[in-house]
Amino acid sequence: MLAPYLNINEIEAGCDEAGRGCLAGPVFAAAVILPQNFSNDLLNDSKQLSEIARKSLRIIIEKEAITWAVGYVDPNEIDQINILNASFLAMHRAIDQLNPLPTSLLIDGNRFKPYKNLPHHCIIKGDGKLMSIAAASILAKTYRDEFMEGLALEFPQYGWESNKGYPTQAHRAAIHEFGACKHHRKSFRLLPEIVQKELF
Fold first, then answer.
1. Confidence (pLDDT) at 79
2. What are 55-63's contacts with CB under 8 Å, separation 24+?
3. Segments of the chain assigned to CATH 3.30.420.10
4. Which of 67, 95, 124, 178 lies most in the core, judged by the most C-beta atoms within 10 Å?
5. 40 φ, ψ to 5°?
6. pLDDT for position 1
7. Per-residue pLDDT tens over the stretch 101-138
């Protein structure tokens, strides 16, 4: 059972990202403030849930959250500032949209770039420990998946409707055959055996 909060005296926003390890597409992040009495037995780390469960929970989260938002950083920005900083920036962009603003941030993982003057707590595997971080993981994952499914209509050769841009064998085989496109991350090693500049 996930914990409803870290500190009952704070307005806590859970934050998580999706797509950090992908070869293509943006990195997405979400920030969620849940009511302290929120409860849902199915809520969990998005990676532990089926696609159907994630979509069902997203509807509940968006309806019952005090506030929620999603932000993203595109591949060009990722290449300029690196994926770690891009993940932080995506979280910042999500937090920017929250109304009301939280008094404390709960971050999934062990590192974070401070957001303004708000205190933050980095929690390793927090998406499996705290409800608000789990909720953020679900929103980040579902919104990113939908985005990649949309890109797959324009670039069907890469199979993004199924691999979502992750480095699967089929995705790498498609990059080898067709080269890379504008949505691939140039700063990532797309194919170990080929000089990167030859792919674009």
1. 97
2. 55/142, 57/135, 57/138, 58/138, 58/139, 58/142, 61/32, 61/34, 61/135, 61/138, 61/139, 62/139
3. 12-153
4. 95
5. -160, 120
6. 85
7. 999 999 999 999 999 999 999 999 999 999 999 999 99
